[in-house]
Amino acid sequence: MAAYVISEVEVRDIEAMERYRTRAAGSIAQYGGRYLVRGGAAETVEGGPPANTLIIVEFPSMARLREWYASAEYAKALGERWKALDRRLIFVEGAAPA
Known about the structure:
This protein has 98 residues and is of the alpha+beta class. It has helices spanning 14-30, 62-69, 72-84; strands at residues 3-11, 34-38, 53-59, 85-93. Strands 2-3-1-4 form a four-stranded antiparallel beta sheet. Helix 1 (14-30) packs antiparallel against helix 3. It is flat. The chain starts with a strand and ends in a 5-residue tail after the last strand. The mean pLDDT is 93.
């Protein structure tokens, strides 16, 4: 069953963000992940606060997602992440096929 990383981010440093994004994208692809949403326009329709930049990545499974997050490849991106952005990160399992 697919699993998703939902990340709500607030950019701190544009240059560090570009370095983080490049490294993260490479590691995501290595672990079978693919971007579904990558910072497109977001509109808060109900509730609050207003949405920040959203990123949604799909992985083949929660196990594969967790392997990616704990990987040496992603650790290189995390070195930039602390300088680049603040974020809220959520892992969620997809719905079982009907």
